[in-house]
Amino acid sequence: MNTGIAILAILRESWLTLRAEKLFKLVLGLNMLVIVAYLSVGFDDTGVSLFFGLTHVDSEYIRSGTPFARTLYLGIYSAFIVNLWLAWAASILALISTSSIFPSFLKEGAVELVMSRPTGRTTIFFVKYIGGLLFVAVQVGIFTLGAFIAAGWRVDVWDPAIFLAIPLVTLFYSYLFCVNVLVGVITRSTLTALLATLLFWFSTFSIHNTDKILTENVIRFQTSATRAEKRVAELEAERDAATAAGQTKEAEDASHWLQGPQQKAEQAQAAVDQLLPWETVMGLIQAIMPETDRTIGLLHRMLERDADLSMQDLMSGRAFEKDEDHVVPDEMEAAQIEMVDRENEVPGWWIISKSVVFEFIILGIALWIFRRRDF
Questions:
Q1: In this predicted model, what pLDDT tens digit does every residue of 111-151 receive, in sequence order?
Q2: Which domain holds residue 158?
Q3: Which of 50, 167, 362, 364 is most deeply buried (CB count within 10 A of its CB)?
Q4: Does any domain span residue 363?
Q5: Would you say residue 368 lies in a domain?
Q6: Residue 155 CB partners (closer than 8 Å, separation 6+)
Q7: How many domains does the chain have?
């Protein structure tokens, strides 16, 4: 009983400390502004209205009641607002606010007061950790409620999957916060913990994007080699047919045109052979890192689960193509399409489980240091 009261007291103390932070109120206010801006986008029979009708964009496709409007509106939320605001700007502000939790707690005087309560060090550690995550969970919860109401009002989509942003963004933040806690426990420095976490975040972002770029280029060159080899086979068949028919000039022409595709196939295959070892190395590094980008991407995937169109279709223009206008995409576009398909095929359980394992390892080290430190 006394332990439970002590835990609630520590959690309440953490919450009150976070709520008193000026940045908490700043982020809350900015969340409201972003939601109002999102809510200001509307659709009518002629196109899209912005800023509650102050400006209007006529569109033949993106109109009220069309699947284009639904995909665009939900895509703005999951692919842009969540990615750019919640998973970047708001997370940086949250890190600034929460980086002081453990360094401040470990200062002389504060830690002795808490240790005097009938609560074990492990419990105190995790209660403090959960208290830090409250900053993000509460902010995202308020934001997501606004987005849910906006989507229902504007495009008549009352999809509970919108609320997946709360656990997913909190999980994403926890991958960073565990590193922040570890450095904070070791150094007792708020600034060092913040800078180390930002450096770690930049590293995960760089590793993920380097791996993505390498894979995309491997796919592009493989596609180029396959297409060139197909063209080589066609020209060889033309040459052999012309030779068999005694058409000397046609056979010579086919042999002449063979040189270009053959050279292209050889160059593309050589590029693939050079990139594959690097792709393997980056893939191994990526395998042990938390999936920050992909965790957020699960929200976008869920919101598009039953849609006939994707945000990628709208952005690439494929959604507006008619059957007779369809053209074969070039190597770069084909690689981008395949990359999106591959990302969507990565199981959600794998993305989250491997990231949580990383988090538990980091927290385990931080807890071990916390338990052994003399206060």
A1: 554 555 546 788 888 888 988 898 889 889 999 999 999 99
A2: 2-226+273-372
A3: 362
A4: yes
A5: yes
A6: 43, 69, 70, 73, 74
A7: 1
